[in-house]
Amino acid sequence: MNPIIRYIEENRMERLTYADFIQLALYHPDFGYYMKDDKKIGVDGDFYTSPTMTPMYATIIAKWFIEQVRVNQLPAAVLEIGAGDGSFAQVFINQWEEMTDESLVYILVDESPHHRRLQKDKLSKHHSVELHFLQSLDECHTFSGLVFSNELLDALPVHLVEKKDDCLYEIMITSNQNGLTEVYIPIENQEIISYIEQMSISLYNGQRMEIPLFMDGISASISEVLEKGLVLTADYGYTDDDWLIPTRKDGSLRGYRKHQLIPNILTHAGEMDITHDVHWDSWIRFGEKYGLTFMQKWRQDEFLIASGILDELSNHSGDLFSNEAKKNRDIRTLLMDSGISQSFQLVLQKKNL
């Protein structure tokens, strides 16, 4: 039996919220997508990320952070949440060691045991860096430095609502003889009602929207851990001004499997990535609630240019296989109009600086 269907049948109401479904499909210790040992990122996986497409991404952020340490008198310490297979950390640490003799503390947080094993394998040679591999933020004590995440927020569970006949409903998941299906339930969750009121959300009939209640908890956890420093969050998302445009009528929940878009996330549960667009205004407001002051928001290519990526371009002999030529291609990959950076944004917050 499909494990999700079993959970539904064991539930007294015989239904699950979308947030519960996503939590099970991605993070269940036995069948959750992220908890399995299967390859997920890259050509043999299901999706790409900026750090795995090119090392230039982590290189530029490392150089940016070295400058922040100098300007803000920050401790040389990084806390990466959702560190994945350690690809970002590996390049970041290499660049750090190349540019400075200052000791570095690097903390990697990831729920997946498989990812933590990959991280340890990748970083085992960096004896000059104080490394910590954690399962959750709860294991982290007071920290000062940079809190960084790349594509963390889009993979966290969200509730789903829709306006229908001038009423707001929470869309839930149940099962029948054909498998998993949706049901409309008048909103009973007071946290959803409060979120809609606080964010002044107004939907039109037939429009769906993800409700990221998790943002309250993760903002609180980051603020509780962070004594002094910066929070740099990279992801793809939208703002208050975007949510009423027609292309967002059906919300943004979707899956990726073998690099193919799967619009219906109720299929292939536990076998594909599930993602949604991040509502940046909510992230900023929750941060302000817990003392994380908003500083700036960039499109990813704008951040990279402001941080000096164009200075990395170099002349080369014409040898297309040289390191210089490869680095130039990597930079163009990040900056070209049709590239990944056009869809990503970075948000910077601070605390006690």
From TrEMBL:
Keywords: Methyltransferase, Transferase. SUPFAM superfamilies: S-adenosyl-L-methionine-dependent methyltransferases. Pfam families: Methyltransf_28 (PF02636). GO terms for molecular function: protein-arginine omega-N symmetric methyltransferase activity. GO terms for biological process: methylation. InterPro entries: NDUFAF7 (IPR003788), NDUFAF7_sf (IPR038375), SAM-dependent_MTases_sf (IPR029063). This is SAM-dependent methyltransferase. It comes from Cytobacillus kochii. The lineage of its organism: Bacteria, Bacillati, Bacillota, Bacilli, Bacillales.
